[in-house]
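Hey team,

Filing this mostly as a record. A colleague (T.K.) asked me to run one chain through the structure pipeline before their review meeting, and I want the input and output archived in the tracker in case anyone asks later how it was produced. No errors, nothing strange. Just documentation.

Input sequence:
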Amino acid sequence: MTAVADTNRVIIFDTTLRDGEQAPGASMNLDEKLKVAAVLEEMGVDVIEAGFPIASAGDFEAVREVAKLVKNSTVAGLARAARKDIDRAAEALKGAARPRIHTFISTSPLHMKYKLQMTPDQVHQAIIDSVSYARSLVEDVEWSCEDGSRTEHDFLCRCVETAIKAGARTINIPDTVGYATPEEFGALIAMLFDRVPNIDKAIISAHCHNDLGLAVANSLAAVDNGARQVECTINGLGERAGNAAMEEIVMALKTRHDLMPYTTGIRTQSIMKASRMVSAITGFPVQPNKAIVGANAFAHESGIHQDGMLKHAGTYEIMTPESVGLTRSTLVMGKHSGRHAFKTKLKELGFELGDNALEDVFKRFKDLADKKKEIFDEDIVALVDDAVGQDRQRIRFVSLRVVCGSEGPQKADLTLEIDGARKSVDATGDGPVDATFNAIKKLAPHEAKLQLFQVHAVTAGTDAQAEVTVRLEENGKTVNGQGADTDTLVASAKAYLHALNKLLVKREKTAPAALTA
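Output structure:
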């Protein structure tokens, strides 16, 4: 159980591994989930929602392994209001030092009628049955009313009171479809405190989606009206328009402590590290103007701003870059830099790699230093991201030569290593990227459709690394891949292969195994 002695202490419940992963193309494999979980615990997250164990064998395994890995944070598993779901969650959480079963059911008229096809009385009974059963298995039970912001107040109060009476220690009120406004959502939380007689027996939580861009504002309004847990994700990752961004909530509370006298246990210096890792693993780039973690968040181009910054940083910065883990090092990296200096630089940037990974990234760094005059921090981050993306792949990039220009046909000569064997092919296409992707399809036949192809320069200059994101879809499953290189076409091939390798892993795992195990 997450204990809170300070009445102004806000519990941070991170659902990047569960709700965040539901963003199309954002799915993570087991190793990736464990890396993210380790960083979340390191930064002081109170509750890590590791997955939805009944959903698939992969989700069950992820919750089970995260539960074994994490020692200080509470580990939660999601479950519908059904015994088989709750049993599956309890089984996955067996190894957890601090297990939590998070069970939910819809309570809005719309959801009850069309989604559940249940009457309010049936839903109410399901709450009693599911919460009391979950509580018989673990001490720490959280209950959520899906679509809570569109639930009739009388029924919501009845359900919350019942869930607490049945044993729920945390009551979560979700704005599931991102419909509420801050004033409205804050008033909803205040109403529960006024009308539910046993409300003091539980911690009230907010889980807000960002469909109208109000998730963070709604979460803060909930805190201002008595909620003491906020459910959020790194970079605001999540389905549709995403969830409330953890970094924005935490830094808003820290920066405006004068108006919101609340604290969290988050070590904010780890924010950039977590943001970069989640972006690299999911292949979801952070937009440059994203609050707190965007590339432009601490950049100043206007002359007036620059002048003010030179005189006093506080003129245009309300928080320091260092407070979120963004440091500008005096270590200038180049082709003469040694392994020790490179390892030190990686540590400054928030990365600690094993010996094999360090050797791989260091070699990539030396290769890059031969091509680029200046190596920026962003270049090194991209190298690490690319190494993460290419790790443990069945299909590996070896070499690419492309003939292109205004006079076609455009042609790609490609060599790949597939399950340890080198294979080469040439292909033509409508442009160099199309030719490259056609060559990949020849060597590794598949029916996946390209849904997204996105290129951005890591730094300024004509010798900048290109970072490419590719999204593939096959049989309703979508995956993202990412690749980086000073050659945009090589980066494109790496990104495509990264996504294709993820699809191969997905083919090997099927959801029914979770239902029958």
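Quick notes for T.K.: The longest strand covers residues 395-403. Confidence is low (pLDDT under 50) at residues 300-310, 510-517.
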